[in-house]
Amino acid sequence: MGRVGVRGVGRGASGEEAGRAVEEGLRIARECGFGIYHIDLLLERCRLGLLRGDAPAAEADARTALFDGHHPPAESALPTLLAATDRECGYAWGIAAGGHLLAEALLLKAAQKIKRADYVPAKIDELPPAVHQLVADARDQLDQCRELRQRIQDPKIADTQRLLAQLDGGVLTRYPLAVQAPAKHEPPPGESVMKKRFRVALSFPGEHRALASRIATLLVGQLPKSKVFYDEFYKAELARPDLDTYLQRIYHDEADLLVVFLCAEYEKKEWCGLEWRAIRDLIKKKQPAAIMPIRVGEGDVSGLFSIDGYVNAQDHSPEELAALIMERLRINDG
Fold first, then answer.
1. Cβ burial, residue 265 (10 Å; 0-12/13-18/19+)
2. 3-state secondary structure of 276
3. Coil, strand, or helix at residue 171?
4. If the chain, 334 residues long, is cut into consecutive pieces of 10 residues, what is the mean pLDDT of each piece?
5. Do the beta carbons of residue 293 and residue 304 sit within 8 Å?
6. Is residue 191 included in any domain, yes or no?
7. Could you tell me if 131 and 278 lie in one domain?
8. Handedness of CA 245, 246, 249, 250 (dihedral sign)
9. Residue 316 and residue 331: Cα distance in Å, rounded?
10. Residue-range definition of the domain harbouring residue 73
11. CATH code of the domain containing 251
12. Nearest-CA neighbor of 204 among 314, 301, 303?
């Protein structure tokens, strides 16, 4: 994944395709510790956010690339990725690009607050205080960016000068003032277009809790914790008298992908049996894409046969299993 490839994301592709390419690149960068590429891809995602008119998302990506970096939980075993301004990184080109894009995000935010893309320069002091501050912060970022680009002889200084001239002329932004939703594929017949609460739900017998816990932790390094259903994450929520039907509803209706740890013990366990009934109903309703079996031991499970595919946990590390689960999500989403 070279710099040319990063800079070219989105050219000749739809916004949705570009977004998927960037997300895949970010996943690889975070798993492999590619710090510079991580910064570049965050800034590419920031550009896509601006094109959609999504100022908060664009600002968050620019700030992560510039100042925050990526610090996964220690238990995830994923590497820390530095921000462009960290002393150990000092990525001048990324600092310049990030400062420019952060300014654009702040100006778009200002424009969205006043619901117009321009203002009267002579009356800038009449803008609401919050908007006035956004414009001032953006100008400060652009001034710093112009100085840095001049020092490192970055040809993109012309873009920064153009944006400053645009701002001086009373134009805040040329990006959409309303957030544009990305194009979405039509779901197959019979599938709901409603977003589900969880991206992944793990179903496993207690004998394999250690593996399930490790995989859940690794998934949280790549997905929000609120999108991974692992029972230890939801102790307070699951302390209820109707837990049997509550769990069945989660596995049947509220998860995009059900990861099932298959072994002889699975079907014998009372709670696994309850979860398996919900999963079998999805098989009956011809939703196989929603189920990913991982065999963690020998033994038959009713409803599955020798022709059914599965991942053999003995052939993969927990990190590889988590990566395969993320890959399956991307396949399903595509």
1. middle
2. helix
3. strand
4. 39 66 89 93 95 93 93 79 93 96 97 95 92 96 97 96 96 92 48 69 88 93 90 90 84 89 77 73 75 80 62 89 92 80
5. yes
6. no
7. no
8. negative
9. 20
10. 3-168
11. 3.40.50.10140
12. 301
- Scanning 169-223, the segments in alpha helix (DSSP H) are 209-220
Q: What totals of helices (H) and strands (E) does the chain contain, helices first?
A: 13, 5
Helix axes 157-168, 92-114, angle to 10 degrees: 20
135 closest CA partner among 150, 149, 117: 117
| Backbone φ and ψ of 202, nearest 5° | -100, 130
Cα–Cα distance for residue pair 183/180, rounded to 1 Å: 9
| One-letter identity of residue 168 | D
Same domain for 202 and 164? no
For every residue of 5-57, DSSP letters joined together read HHHTTTTTS-HHHHHHHHHHHHHHHHHHT-HHHHHHHHHHHHHHHHHHT-HHH
- Alpha-carbon radius of gyration of the chain: 24
Tokens 């400060």 belong to 140
Contact indicator for 27, 326 with CB cutoff of 8 Å: yes
The runs of H, that is alpha helices, within 122-230 are 129-151, 157-168, 209-220
Which pair of tokens denotes residue 11? 């050219």
Distance CA 67, CA 149 (A): 18
| Domain shared by 155 and 222, yes or no | no
- The one-letter code for the residue type at 232 is E
Residue 265 confidence (pLDDT): 78
Q: How many CB atoms lie within 10 A of CB 63?
A: 16
Helix (H, G, I), strand (E, B) or coil at 199: strand
Instruction: Tell me the pTM.
Output: 0.56
Query: d(Cα 46, Cα 22) in Å, to the nearest integer?
Result: 10
Residues near 297 by Cβ (< 8 Å), separated by ≥ 6?
207, 208, 262, 263, 264, 265
